[in-house]
């Protein structure tokens, strides 16, 4: 019994000695490990006290988070405050393509004027429209001068369209040209407002590309209810403003303040802005903001050009309103469109017939010249030369 106990204790000691090298822990290391273990357990209270004294309080954390949140908008819009930022992100790559040119203008005003993006869009829109204002003045004056001679001009145009002979058509064309020259009318100014088309397309494409990126600052530099210019207006307020101003300036006589629309055209331009509301509801607020500002400027420009004092100072002729012929009930828009298309086809057919006749006369004239160069010689003339 005693022998068995001695053998068991010897085996235990031998197993512990063998276990030490296998685990990589010597006796001295093990003792140190055990001491360290007990020391860490005993040092718990001082460590907790130290953590409690060194960690900031919740009030300090809340104030720090608030400060970071206040500085976040400034950090977000910082990158776009430098010239060349748009080009660095793939926008404003040229100076001749309308969208790129508009983006260059927007960036310059945003950087040098220090305006937020909503103010930049408004400022550039108004600035471009002011540059185009003299063209609308000339167009308004041309429309007013045409209104003075409208009865005579309509009669000549009717005769010109009904003429079938080339000489007769040329006679009426010269008569119309003389009438326009005598009244100082240059109809090329009537096309001046058409320059607004590429400008509007440039604004639309340029701002839409900036919103789709989105450009730095677009997400937080809006105003009022549309603080994010890269997203659609959540309340459709800009769409309703745009529709209202478009209806207003059409009723007031267009952007020149001198255009006379038929009742059918007035109804058409009243319905069209209302239809545009659902069509533009998915566009970004930056794009629709341009539509609203541009339309508002159009209304103000129309009111300005309708003012008699302004027209007198700018040397714009007054519009003469002639009584419209009442030949039956007023025609609808579709019927008017069909009549205009029929007149256009009839006029095109007459022009083609006149052109064919002119080409035939030119061919006949060439043939006569060719025959006049042929000299007929008699046999007696040949014998004399010999």
Automatic annotation (TrEMBL):
Transmembrane segments: 115-137, 189-211, 235-252
Record localization: Membrane; Mitochondrion inner membrane
Membrane-protein topology: Multi-pass membrane protein
GO cellular component, one term: mitochondrial inner boundary membrane
Residue stretches of biased makeup (Basic and acidic residues): 344-370
GO molecular function: membrane insertase activity; mitochondrial ribosome binding
Superkingdom of the source species: Eukaryota
UniProt xrefs under InterPro entries: YidC/ALB3/OXA1/COX18 (IPR001708), YidC/Oxa/ALB_C (IPR028055)
A Pfam family the protein falls into: 60KD_IMP
Span list, region Disordered: 344-386
Single GO BP term: protein insertion into mitochondrial inner membrane from matrix
Keywords: Membrane, Mitochondrion, Mitochondrion inner membrane, Transit peptide, Transmembrane, Transmembrane helix
Domain Membrane insertase YidC/Oxa/ALB C-terminal per the UniProt entry, residue ranges: 117-306
Family: Belongs to the OXA1/ALB3/YidC family.
PANTHER family registered for this protein in UniProt: MITOCHONDRIAL INNER MEMBRANE PROTEIN OXA1L, OXA1
Protein name per the record: Membrane insertase YidC/Oxa/ALB C-terminal domain-containing protein
Organism this protein belongs to: Torulaspora delbrueckii
Lineage: Eukaryota, Fungi, Dikarya, Ascomycota, Saccharomycotina
Gene: TDEL0A01580
């Amino acid at each position: 019994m005693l022998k068995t106990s001695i053998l068991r204790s010897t085996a235990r000691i031998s197993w512990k000695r063998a276990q030490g090298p296998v685990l990589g822990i010597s006796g001295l290391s093990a003792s140190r490990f055990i001491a360290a273990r007990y020391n860490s357990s005993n040092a718990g209270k001082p460590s907790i006290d130290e953590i409690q004294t060194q960690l900031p309080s919740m009030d300090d954390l809340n104030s720090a988070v608030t400060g970071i949140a206040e500085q976040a908008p400034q950090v977000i819009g910082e990158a776009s405050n430098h010239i060349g930022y748009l080009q660095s992100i793939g926008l404003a790559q040229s100076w001749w393509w309308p969208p790129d040119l508009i983006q260059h203008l927007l960036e310059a005003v945003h950087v040098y004027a220090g305006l937020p993006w909503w103010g930049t869009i408004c400022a550039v829109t108004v600035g471009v429209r002011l540059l185009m204002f003299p063209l609308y003045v000339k167009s308004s004056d041309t429309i007013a001068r045409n209104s003075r001679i409208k009865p005579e001009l309509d009669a000549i145009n009717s005769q010109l369209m009904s003429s079938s002979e080339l000489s007769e058509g040329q006679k009426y064309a010269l008569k119309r040209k003389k009438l326009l020259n005598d009244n100082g009318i240059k109809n090329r100014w009537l096309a001046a407002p058409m320059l607004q088309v590429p400008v509007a397309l440039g604004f639309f494409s340029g701002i839409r590309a900036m919103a789709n990126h989105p450009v730095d600052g677009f997400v937080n530099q809006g105003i009022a209810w549309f603080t994010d210019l890269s997203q659609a207006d959540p309340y459709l307020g800009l769409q309703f403003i745009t529709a209202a101003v478009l209806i207003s300036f059409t009723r007031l006589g267009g952007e020149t303040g001198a255009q006379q629309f038929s009742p059918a055209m007035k109804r058409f331009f009243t319905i069209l802005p209302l239809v545009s509301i659902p069509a533009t509801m998915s566009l970004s607020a930056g794009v629709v903001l341009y539509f609203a500002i541009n339309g508002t400027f159009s209304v103000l420009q129309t009111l300005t050009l309708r003012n008699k004092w302004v027209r007198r100072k700018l040397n714009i002729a007054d519009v003469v309103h002639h009584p419209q012929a009442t030949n039956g009930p007023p025609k609808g828009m579709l019927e008017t469109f069909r009549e205009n298309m029929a007149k256009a086809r009839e006029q095109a057919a007459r022009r083609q017939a006149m052109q064919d006749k002119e080409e035939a006369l030119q061919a006949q004239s060439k043939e006569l010249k060719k025959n006049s160069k042929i000299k007929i010689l008699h046999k007696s003339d040949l014998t004399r030369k010999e």
